[in-house]
Amino acid sequence: MASTLLITGLTLFLMGTVMLAMDAQHRGRSSLMFALPFAGASYIHHFWSDVWLPALLRVIGISVIVVSVAVVVAQDPQVLEQPRRVFGVAIGGDMVGSKRAEINTFANSQEAVLLAIRSDDNPLLTGRLRGKPFTYKQARLVNGVLSVQQGEGFIPEVEVRMLLDLDPALITNERKTIFVRPSDDGAPELQITWRDGQDGIPHSEIIRSGYQMELQLTRRDQQTLAGFLQVILPDPDRSYLSGELTVRTNYLRYVKDRVDLTWDHPDTLEYVGRQYLETQFPENTIRQLKFRDTRLLMSESGGVSTATVELVNGRIEQRRLQFDRADIGWAVRPGAMQVTVLQEAGDNTLRLVQPGATASRSQTVVEVPPPVTMAFADLESLNGRSVKIFQRDGRVREGVLRGIRRNRLMVESIVEGGTVELSFAETDLSHLVLASGQQVLLSGVEPAESLPAAQAATPEAAPIAEPEAEQAQPESALKVDDSSLYTQLQGKLVTITSRDTRTRTGVLTAVTDRELTLTVRVGAGNLEYFYAPADIVSIKEAGR
């Protein structure tokens, strides 16, 4: 409004002045007499009947200019010191502050301390900024910047940003404390942003020194920090903040303390991916989980990310995830995950020495824990451990324990470059050996004498001879007349043709008297097919 009045007044004044100058020029008088405010007063008085209109325009213009200046001063008294602020309202926000703020008496006064202590009664961070009450709505610590906001809009009502250069990943359960005194040099920069209540235009203020701050942070969970903040600012409005706050370490959006899965941000994709991957492994078996190259593909209503999963047994996998955007939010696309094994489980540099043997200089003697005896159901406690499975028929399988399902022991193993799950009944097992060499004996089951545990745990042990029936097997399709052939092919990649003329290729993961289980890899998962021996027309090892 003030700018409009000022422009209107100047326009009327200039119009009246130009009209008077033109009239004087026609009468042979000098037009420069109207350059000064009262120089042309005698001319206007003498020819009033002809020049009353331009003279009136000049008077009205001057009056409007005076009114506009009064309005500007009433709205912003600082315009008397900074005349350029007259046009600052029309062109946008302003930036105030200096590189080094002066240390005033309030930042060190007893009044500031009493105000901060009085605010401690409120568990939430509260205070006063620019003469108005402040109550924080959310706080984040991302890329070393701590931001505290009032309001939930894209542009908050008030925001205080602190350039701390602090990595939230380094904050543990041990409390991290930062102190800043008004006289400190090199204090973290503070940026205060607020919106004007009348026009909603954002304004900013920068404070680089002269303030007092105490910040305490500790780890609450993987994505949240708990802390206490107290800031006393060196401004004439006696601004301060004090109280407890909850700090998020990402850009996730929360609705009633729950993650909003509809929020389109890479952090949302990584959160969904983390929740999904944690269900793919037994509890407490993931040591570290990192994401990289997370991108939104909004034109395809999807997204991609690459996760590196490190397990407690040393196995490292890289999983390529794809995401879909639905009405209920983001979700992992089923059957589209690609798995690449970067490092196998176990420590291959360890060598076990049999009791009584003499270790050479190239060997490392490792003390093997004594054997333990466990019930079949108690093997669930070994989830995520790398083991060797010794079967009663003499075969040995290696993999990672994945628990017990349907009274069968599940083991994840690498076969033909892919990951499959093998299942073993209790009657199939002789004993187990952990990566440390410790034997796990089963209650009521005697280990097979032909396979000493020490020999099986030694990497240099001679390989177990294949049964003669398998060695003599021709390359043609195996017939179903001899049921022992099924057992010989367990754990191998085979092709089965059934009576319905369907042919499937997969890993023969389980063999019982009543059925055979064929695991076929589909996308990032597996499908299991069950065959009765009478339904199988032929079975042969794949590639033959």
Keywords for this entry:
single chain; 544 residues; alpha+beta; 7-stranded mixed β-sheet; 9 helices; 31 strands
Which consecutive residue ranges, at least 5 long each, have pLDDT under 50? Answer: 89-103, 347-366, 449-482
* Total DSSP helices: 9
Strand content: 35-45%
User: What is the overall silhouette?
Assistant: elongated
From the N-terminal CA to the C-terminal CA, the straight-line distance is 89 Å
Share of helical residues: 10-25%
Radius of gyration, taken over Cα atoms and rounded to an integer in Å: 40 Å
Mean pLDDT: 75
Number of strands: 31
Supply the helix-strand structural class. alpha+beta
Molecular structure report:
There is one protein chain. The protein is α+β, with helices and mostly antiparallel strands and 544 residues long. Helix 1 runs antiparallel to helix 3 (48-75). The strands form 5 sheets. Strands 1, 2, 3, 4, 5, 6, 7, 8, 9, 10, 11 and 12 form a 12-stranded mixed β-sheet that branches. The chain contains 9 helices and 31 strands. It is elongated, with a radius of gyration of 40 Å. It folds into 5 domains: 2-91; 97-249, no CATH class; 258-343, Nuclear Transport Factor 2, Chain: A; 372-457, SH3 type barrels (Roll), CATH 2.30.30; 474-541, Roll (SH3 type barrels). Residues 89-103, 347-366 and 449-482 have low confidence and may be disordered.
